[in-house]
Amino acid sequence: MVVKIRLARFGRSNSPFYNIVVTHARTARGSRPLEVLGTYDPVPKKDTYDPDSKPHKDIKLDVTRAKYWIGVGAQPTDTAHRILAMAGIMKPKVRQGTPVTPIRMAH
């Protein structure tokens, strides 16, 4: 059975908060996950100890468990792949631009 690493949304309206979860691909979105790997808060917040710093998004992740699930074949969704790439667990996906067409030169 295919296992996915995806985000499960929590939080109020206009204030999202996500759990990074491992779940079976064919289960319902609201069902209980196999394991919760961490959390992701997409709302940028300033650091309370350094008022001059830029706002940042909060990511908490159990790296050893994430590596385990990737090792046994769990497939991350695109957003989960981006978060795992930021954590250094996976290589970032290369974005494909528009295809380059060869130019014909007049002789």
Automatic annotation (TrEMBL):
Designated name of the protein: Ribosomal protein S16, mitochondrial
Q: Which UniProt keywords apply?
A: Ribonucleoprotein, Ribosomal protein
Show the NCBIfam families listed in the entry: S16
Give the matching PROSITE patterns: RIBOSOMAL_S16
The cellular component terms of Gene Ontology attached to this UniProt record, alphabetical and capped at eight, are: mitochondrial small ribosomal subunit
**InterPro entries from the entry?**
Ribosomal_bS16 (IPR000307), Ribosomal_bS16_CS (IPR020592), Ribosomal_bS16_dom_sf (IPR023803)
Q: Name one GO biological process term.
A: mitochondrial translation
The keyword Ribosomal protein is annotated on this UniProt entry: yes
Does the record bear Ribosomal protein in its keywords? Answer: yes
Source species of the chain: Immersiella caudata
Q: Would you identify the family this protein belongs to, as annotated?
A: Belongs to the bacterial ribosomal protein bS16 family.
- Give the molecular function GO annotations: structural constituent of ribosome
